[in-house]
Structure formats: structure tokens, C-alpha cells
Structure to design on (155 residues):
């Protein structure tokens, strides 16, 4: 198992928005960031490069939306494809993290924080990304590192 280096940037891929969260350098805290608009690959890549530079990120984690039974559907295949493209385009380690049920839990977290119902849609993507990041940091499972050559490796 390799030692993780922070800050780590986490992404929750949506159809229209990409939720983003970042850890601190010591991998103790996570912070949700404003979501990125998802238009085309070139724009998303530039936005991610800007965030990597702004936060001095050392690692990227992409949420893997598996089905409840653990199988991969179209959304998971798309997440893998995007993660592989990221690994090819950005010279940082890229990992996948199971994100089942994070959107529902993110909504519950925001309600528990006292966020007004009208404000939840603006924050839910970032909160889901923060949950993906926390799960990644706290997990005892083997981490799935994405290789630029599209072969999955466990660490």
C-alpha cells in the first residue's frame, strides 16, 4: 500500500455539473468547492488543471458510480473513461472510489448542517465529492489506481 500525499482533489461526475472537493495537505480535513460546469472535455480538463495548480493537488480521486449490487453500468464506464483520460492528461496519480449512495447521504448531511432546502441543489455536488474524498481517505479497501494505459491496478 502506498502512502497518499495531499492535497487530494475529488470529483463527483454529474451530467451537467462536476462536484469538487479538496483535502488539506495532511489529509485531515475536506472542503467542498463550487461545482464545475460540464460542457466539453477540453474545458473540463482546463478547469481541473486550474484547480490542481490552485490547491497544489498531488492526487485526484474520481467517484465511481457503481450500481447497488456492485456492478458497473454506463455511468461507471463513463467515469472510468474520464479517469483514464485524466491519467493520460495530468501527471498525477488518479484513483477511482466507489460512490454508491453518496448523493443521498450528501443531502442528509446538508440538511443536518441546517442548509436551507433552496440552497441544497447548489451544494450537493460538492458535498458528494467531499464524501467521496472522505471515504477514499478512510477506506481500508484496496485503492483502484487508474493507469494511463487503461489497465486497472490495486494498491
Amino acid at each position: 500500500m502506498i502512502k497518499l500525499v495531499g492535497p487530494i482533489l475529488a470529483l463527483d461526475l454529474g451530467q451537467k455539473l462536476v462536484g469538487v472537493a479538496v483535502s488539506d495537505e495532511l489529509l485531515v480535513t475536506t472542503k467542498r468547492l463550487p461545482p464545475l460546469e460540464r460542457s466539453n472535455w477540453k474545458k473540463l480538463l482546463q478547469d481541473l488543471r486550474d484547480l490542481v495548480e490552485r490547491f497544489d493537488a498531488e492526487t485526484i480521486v474520481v467517484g465511481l458510480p457503481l450500481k447497488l449490487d456492485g456492478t458497473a453500468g454506463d455511468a461507471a464506464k463513463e467515469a472510468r473513461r474520464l479517469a483514464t483520460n485524466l491519467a493520460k492528461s495530468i501527471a498525477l496519480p488518479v484513483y477511482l472510489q466507489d460512490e454508491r449512495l453518496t448523493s443521498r447521504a450528501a443531502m442528509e448531511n446538508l440538511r443536518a448542517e441546517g442548509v436551507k432546502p433552496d440552497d441544497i441543489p447548489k451544494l450537493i455536488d460538492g458535498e458528494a465529492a467531499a464524501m467521496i474524498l472522505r471515504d477514499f481517505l478512510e477506506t481500508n479497501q484496496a485503492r483502484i489506481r487508474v493507469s494511463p494505459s487503461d489497465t486497472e491496478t490495486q494498491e
Remarks:
- Residues 8-154 form a domain with the Nucleotidyltransferase; domain 5 fold (CATH 3.30.420.140).
